[in-house]
Amino acid sequence: MAYTDVTLDDASAITTQADLSPVKNIESLSGGWANSNYLLHLNDESKVVLKIWNERTPKQVEELLIITSWLVKEGVPTPAPIRFDYGELMIIKNGLAWTLLPYVESKWLESDEKSLFTLGCAQAQLHATNPPPTLGTDFSMGFSLFEKLFQYAEEKGEWSDFLIMLKNEYDGLKMIGFNELPSGVIHGDLFSDNVLGSPEKIDAILDFEEVCIGPFAFDLIMTFVGFGWQDGKPISNRWEAILSGYESVRTLEPIERESLQKLHTFATLSIAAWRYWQFVINMPGTEHTNRYVEMVERLDKTLPF
Question: Is the full-model pTM beyond 0.85?
């Protein structure tokens, strides 16, 4: 999506500061709901991606770029941020961070069983990565967002049915015992618009904006939330494919298996809460206003685990 308009002159001013060719054409990219993403076609026939971070402060972006660069060096298949002439990884324009990334020639990963097996393998390999020293434990779509929504509702006196339900679930979710689960580097948002690849190979994992130290099982469940449903129903074969791929690299521990249903509730409500914040409160009146309802309607479905 795109929230910030970009002209050819704007884009060329950015690429030339990275010692790249000027821009001859700009194309808005699909995928991503919180930032502006453009494919820049350069005069020398190469391509790069311009990302304007609409929902993160420059300081937050700087921290994420450092973490992403670390993960690249650790072998995680994600594009390395392009450095500008003065050595920095971003340019600040009108208070927003602008970054450049290599363009990965690939397709969004499909939800067939072989592709999901391959994704499960890649996710387990990510979980084995040495964590960056600056990586924190806050999952930004989780409890901190819930509390932000509660504060908003209290201040505005606008306790919707969804926020009341979320508040009622809050205490129970806090009892899951996250600290007891095996943890490490997690992506936190492996949906289909964040993964490029084929049944044989994951070409790129994108948008590590929710990256943190967190429970591996939660990250695995979030991948099922992103890839494992169709027409409002959980697809058991998709879950089995993700899990089989994952366990070909790392076997879940009994305590992780026992927590899967509660973690699914937390993951589902996290996505619902983010969509509510983004499209009901932050950007009301668009065609996406009721996107959170898709997640709420999943909560009473029978799960394949």
Answer: yes
